[in-house]
Protein backbone atom coordinates (compact mmCIF):
# COMPACT_ATOMS: atom_id res chain seq x y z
CA UNK A 1 0.00 0.00 0.00
CA UNK A 2 1.87 3.02 -1.31
CA UNK A 3 1.66 6.59 -0.08
CA UNK A 4 -1.03 5.76 2.47
CA UNK A 5 -3.54 4.81 -0.22
CA UNK A 6 -6.33 2.53 1.01
CA UNK A 7 -8.38 2.49 -2.20
CA UNK A 8 -6.86 2.84 -5.67
CA UNK A 9 -9.21 2.92 -8.66
CA UNK A 10 -7.54 3.06 -12.08
CA UNK A 11 -9.38 3.64 -15.36
CA UNK A 12 -12.40 1.61 -14.29
CA UNK A 13 -15.29 1.02 -16.69
CA UNK A 14 -18.53 -0.84 -16.00
CA UNK A 15 -20.90 -1.55 -18.86
CA UNK A 16 -24.18 -3.42 -18.60
CA UNK A 17 -25.54 -5.07 -21.74
CA UNK A 18 -24.17 -5.01 -25.25
CA UNK A 19 -24.52 -3.19 -28.53
CA UNK A 20 -27.16 -0.48 -28.86
CA UNK A 21 -28.63 -1.42 -25.48
CA UNK A 22 -25.36 -1.10 -23.58
CA UNK A 23 -25.45 1.13 -20.49
CA UNK A 24 -22.10 2.68 -19.58
CA UNK A 25 -22.56 3.17 -15.84
CA UNK A 26 -18.91 3.96 -15.03
CA UNK A 27 -16.56 5.40 -17.65
CA UNK A 28 -12.82 5.53 -17.07
CA UNK A 29 -12.91 6.48 -13.39
CA UNK A 30 -9.62 6.89 -11.52
CA UNK A 31 -9.16 8.13 -7.95
CA UNK A 32 -7.36 7.34 -4.71
CA UNK A 33 -8.76 7.33 -1.16
CA UNK A 34 -6.12 7.66 1.52
CA UNK A 35 -6.11 5.70 4.74
CA UNK A 36 -7.99 7.43 7.56
CA UNK A 37 -9.89 9.86 5.32
CA UNK A 38 -13.55 10.39 4.52
CA UNK A 39 -14.17 10.75 0.79
CA UNK A 40 -17.60 11.84 -0.41
CA UNK A 41 -18.88 10.68 -3.81
CA UNK A 42 -21.13 13.41 -5.14
CA UNK A 43 -23.56 13.15 -8.03
CA UNK A 44 -27.19 13.02 -9.08
CA UNK A 45 -29.19 9.82 -9.26
CA UNK A 46 -27.86 7.81 -12.20
CA UNK A 47 -24.40 9.38 -12.07
CA UNK A 48 -22.74 6.04 -11.26
CA UNK A 49 -22.16 6.43 -7.50
CA UNK A 50 -23.78 3.18 -6.41
CA UNK A 51 -22.19 1.19 -9.24
CA UNK A 52 -18.78 2.55 -8.28
CA UNK A 53 -19.30 1.71 -4.60
CA UNK A 54 -20.37 -1.82 -5.54
CA UNK A 55 -17.20 -2.22 -7.59
CA UNK A 56 -14.94 -0.94 -4.82
CA UNK A 57 -16.73 -3.14 -2.28
CA UNK A 58 -16.25 -6.27 -4.36
CA UNK A 59 -19.99 -6.71 -4.90
CA UNK A 60 -19.50 -6.35 -8.67
CA UNK A 61 -16.57 -6.61 -11.08
CA UNK A 62 -15.44 -3.94 -13.55
CA UNK A 63 -15.64 -4.44 -17.30
CA UNK A 64 -12.09 -3.09 -17.44
CA UNK A 65 -9.60 -1.27 -15.24
CA UNK A 66 -8.29 -2.17 -11.79
CA UNK A 67 -9.26 -1.67 -8.14
CA UNK A 68 -7.10 -2.39 -5.11
CA UNK A 69 -7.97 -2.29 -1.42
CA UNK A 70 -5.09 -1.97 1.04
CA UNK A 71 -2.73 -3.21 -1.66
CA UNK A 72 -4.90 -6.19 -2.66
CA UNK A 73 -5.90 -6.26 -6.34
CA UNK A 74 -9.55 -7.32 -6.46
CA UNK A 75 -9.03 -8.88 -9.91
CA UNK A 76 -6.74 -11.45 -8.31
CA UNK A 77 -9.42 -12.72 -5.92
CA UNK A 78 -11.87 -15.53 -6.62
CA UNK A 79 -15.41 -15.37 -5.19
CA UNK A 80 -14.29 -16.90 -1.90
CA UNK A 81 -11.53 -14.32 -1.65
CA UNK A 82 -13.97 -11.48 -2.34
CA UNK A 83 -16.33 -12.83 0.31
CA UNK A 84 -13.48 -12.93 2.83
CA UNK A 85 -12.46 -9.38 1.91
CA UNK A 86 -16.01 -8.08 2.40
CA UNK A 87 -16.39 -9.95 5.68
CA UNK A 88 -13.07 -9.02 7.23
CA UNK A 89 -11.94 -5.72 5.69
CA UNK A 90 -15.02 -3.80 4.53
CA UNK A 91 -18.07 -2.50 6.40
CA UNK A 92 -21.24 -1.51 4.53
CA UNK A 93 -23.93 1.03 5.46
CA UNK A 94 -27.03 1.18 3.26
CA UNK A 95 -29.69 3.82 2.72
CA UNK A 96 -32.40 1.36 3.81
CA UNK A 97 -30.48 0.40 7.01
CA UNK A 98 -30.59 -3.34 6.20
CA UNK A 99 -31.23 -4.47 9.77
CA UNK A 100 -32.80 -7.83 10.63
CA UNK A 101 -36.20 -6.94 12.08
CA UNK A 102 -36.51 -9.91 14.47
CA UNK A 103 -33.15 -9.20 16.12
CA UNK A 104 -32.39 -6.60 18.79
CA UNK A 105 -29.93 -3.78 18.17
CA UNK A 106 -27.24 -5.72 20.02
CA UNK A 107 -27.94 -8.89 18.05
CA UNK A 108 -27.83 -7.00 14.74
CA UNK A 109 -24.44 -5.52 15.61
CA UNK A 110 -23.19 -8.96 16.61
CA UNK A 111 -24.12 -10.70 13.34
CA UNK A 112 -20.82 -10.03 11.48
CA UNK A 113 -18.85 -11.34 14.45
CA UNK A 114 -20.98 -14.49 14.59
CA UNK A 115 -20.07 -15.12 10.96
CA UNK A 116 -16.40 -14.92 11.94
CA UNK A 117 -17.04 -17.18 14.95
CA UNK A 118 -15.75 -14.58 17.42
CA UNK A 119 -15.85 -15.85 21.01
CA UNK A 120 -19.04 -14.91 22.87
CA UNK A 121 -17.37 -12.82 25.57
CA UNK A 122 -15.29 -10.85 23.05
CA UNK A 123 -18.32 -10.38 20.80
CA UNK A 124 -20.54 -9.10 23.60
CA UNK A 125 -17.88 -6.67 24.78
CA UNK A 126 -17.37 -5.33 21.24
CA UNK A 127 -21.14 -4.91 20.80
CA UNK A 128 -21.39 -2.89 24.02
CA UNK A 129 -18.47 -0.70 22.96
CA UNK A 130 -19.94 -0.01 19.53
CA UNK A 131 -23.45 0.76 20.75
CA UNK A 132 -21.97 3.19 23.27
CA UNK A 133 -19.90 4.78 20.49
CA UNK A 134 -23.00 5.49 18.41
CA UNK A 135 -25.00 6.68 21.44
CA UNK A 136 -27.32 3.70 21.76
CA UNK A 137 -26.06 1.93 24.87
CA UNK A 138 -29.52 2.14 26.45
CA UNK A 139 -31.28 0.76 23.35
CA UNK A 140 -29.41 -2.54 23.04
CA UNK A 141 -32.51 -4.69 23.54
CA UNK A 142 -34.81 -2.75 21.21
CA UNK A 143 -35.71 -4.10 17.80
CA UNK A 144 -35.62 -1.98 14.61
CA UNK A 145 -39.41 -1.49 14.61
CA UNK A 146 -39.09 0.13 18.04
CA UNK A 147 -36.48 2.65 16.87
CA UNK A 148 -36.45 5.83 14.82
CA UNK A 149 -34.80 5.99 11.41
CA UNK A 150 -31.81 7.80 12.86
CA UNK A 151 -31.41 5.18 15.60
CA UNK A 152 -31.63 2.38 13.05
CA UNK A 153 -28.91 3.96 10.96
CA UNK A 154 -26.71 4.29 14.04
CA UNK A 155 -27.16 0.57 14.63
CA UNK A 156 -26.20 0.00 10.99
CA UNK A 157 -23.03 2.04 11.46
CA UNK A 158 -22.14 0.06 14.60
CA UNK A 159 -22.74 -3.21 12.74
CA UNK A 160 -20.52 -2.04 9.86
CA UNK A 161 -17.69 -1.50 12.36
CA UNK A 162 -18.13 -4.83 14.14
CA UNK A 163 -15.18 -6.58 12.49
CA UNK A 164 -12.91 -3.53 12.66
CA UNK A 165 -12.86 -2.95 8.89
CA UNK A 166 -10.18 -0.96 7.09
CA UNK A 167 -12.79 0.50 4.72
CA UNK A 168 -16.32 1.74 5.40
CA UNK A 169 -18.65 2.09 2.39
CA UNK A 170 -21.87 4.06 2.86
CA UNK A 171 -24.37 4.46 0.01
CA UNK A 172 -26.63 7.48 0.65
CA UNK A 173 -26.71 6.71 4.40
CA UNK A 174 -28.85 9.80 5.09
CA UNK A 175 -31.22 9.38 2.14
CA UNK A 176 -34.22 8.29 4.25
CA UNK A 177 -33.61 10.72 7.10
CA UNK A 178 -34.64 14.32 7.73
CA UNK A 179 -31.92 16.95 7.36
CA UNK A 180 -31.08 17.29 11.06
CA UNK A 181 -30.90 13.52 11.61
CA UNK A 182 -28.93 13.11 8.39
CA UNK A 183 -26.40 15.67 9.54
CA UNK A 184 -26.05 13.86 12.88
CA UNK A 185 -25.34 10.57 11.06
CA UNK A 186 -22.75 12.23 8.84
CA UNK A 187 -21.11 13.78 11.90
CA UNK A 188 -21.06 10.32 13.46
CA UNK A 189 -19.31 8.91 10.38
CA UNK A 190 -16.82 11.78 10.55
CA UNK A 191 -16.12 10.98 14.22
CA UNK A 192 -15.80 7.25 13.48
CA UNK A 193 -13.19 7.89 10.80
CA UNK A 194 -11.13 9.83 13.32
CA UNK A 195 -11.56 7.53 16.31
CA UNK A 196 -11.30 4.17 14.52
CA UNK A 197 -8.78 5.19 11.85
CA UNK A 198 -11.04 3.74 9.17
CA UNK A 199 -11.22 4.97 5.58
CA UNK A 200 -14.74 5.92 4.45
CA UNK A 201 -16.34 6.27 1.02
CA UNK A 202 -19.74 7.94 1.35
CA UNK A 203 -22.12 8.55 -1.55
CA UNK A 204 -24.28 11.63 -1.00
CA UNK A 205 -25.89 14.48 -2.89
CA UNK A 206 -26.36 16.75 0.14
CA UNK A 207 -23.99 19.78 -0.01
CA UNK A 208 -24.22 20.26 3.77
CA UNK A 209 -22.96 16.74 4.37
CA UNK A 210 -20.12 17.07 1.88
CA UNK A 211 -18.63 19.87 3.96
CA UNK A 212 -17.62 17.24 6.53
CA UNK A 213 -15.61 15.21 4.01
CA UNK A 214 -11.83 15.38 3.61
CA UNK A 215 -12.33 15.40 -0.14
CA UNK A 216 -15.15 15.24 -2.65
CA UNK A 217 -15.18 13.22 -5.88
CA UNK A 218 -17.96 14.35 -8.22
CA UNK A 219 -19.46 11.95 -10.75
CA UNK A 220 -21.52 12.91 -13.77
CA UNK A 221 -22.73 10.39 -16.34
CA UNK A 222 -20.29 7.82 -15.01
CA UNK A 223 -17.24 10.10 -15.23
CA UNK A 224 -15.34 12.11 -12.64
CA UNK A 225 -15.81 15.85 -13.02
CA UNK A 226 -12.56 17.67 -12.39
Automatic annotation (TrEMBL):
Pfam families according to UniProt = ABC_tran
**Gene Ontology MF annotations:** ATP binding; ATP hydrolysis activity; transmembrane transporter activity
SMART domains under this entry?
AAA
What are the UniProt keywords, alphabetically? ATP-binding, Nucleotide-binding, Transport
All copies of domain ABC transporter, residue ranges: 7-226
**Which Gene3D superfamilies does the protein's record reference?**
P-loop containing nucleotide triphosphate hydrolases
GO cellular-component terms in the record? membrane protein complex; plasma membrane
Q: What is this protein called?
A: Putative ABC transporter ATP-binding protein
Native organism is Kitasatospora setae (strain ATCC 33774 / DSM 43861 / JCM 3304 / KCC A-0304 / NBRC 14216 / KM-6054)
Upper lineage is: Bacteria, Bacillati, Actinomycetota, Actinomycetes, Kitasatosporales
